[in-house]
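Q: What would this chain look like folded?
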Amino acid sequence: MKDKGFLSQKQDDYFSLRLHVVGGNLTSGNLRAIADAADKYGKGYVHVTSRQGIEVPFVHNDNTEAISSLMRDAAIAPGSSGKKIRAVVACQGSRVCKNGIIDCQDICERIDEMYFGQPVPYKFKISVTGCPASCLKVQENDFGIMGTVQPKFIKENCVTCGLCKKTCKVNAIEITDGVLAIDSEKCIMCGECIRVCKKDAMLIAEEGFTLYIGGKVGRKPRMGIRILKTVSEPVMFEVLERTIAYYRENAVEGERIIDVIDRCGINHLEEALQYSLEK
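A: My prediction, written as structure tokens:
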């Protein structure tokens, strides 16, 4: 039943039907079909999950085939649970959000098409967020992708107006005796200073994807490890592929990828990914 998206409820013979939602996006047609299904085969409501998913609760065992058929007709696939790669979650990114650095929905759709529902040793969650505000909590996922931009300061263009310093939310910019300096340790690579500078004193040095591995919530929550910052799109996809392969090759029963890293060491992961990681 799990393979068909049905999760057993505490009530005998009743299931919640989990549906496949990519990046939190559903068409109005999808929503109408789901509402019809909930009215006909559930209790007239749906549950929105913490990972942008949709579940239709209180589907009786006798109606599972009928509701599955209705969802297939609406081109809505069942969701994933168990020892699989789960649906990818994403914010709206640069398509909609003024702070978005990357096109999260495009990245999300491509990753989901490549990996959704594939078997893994336990479970594997992927999140994509457009900027360091991290609305999609990439640090809480097995693999997190964040859009970031590193600023480049052009001293001769700077008039020390202080607008960048005022805008910076992490106090990474200081102006002392008319001289501006960026603290790279504090900088979170959000790009706000670049956006507000009117004199081209702040330009883009690098723009791309900052990657996190090993985050999870639940009974033993962990924050993900930042392993690479502001890499290119091809590198991001390459590291994701190698990370999943590493997890499959090294995990034992019931381990998430952070458990593998704890047991085998970050150097072991670094060797498998073939990139010099932040530590």
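The chain has two domains: 2-73, 89-148+207-273.
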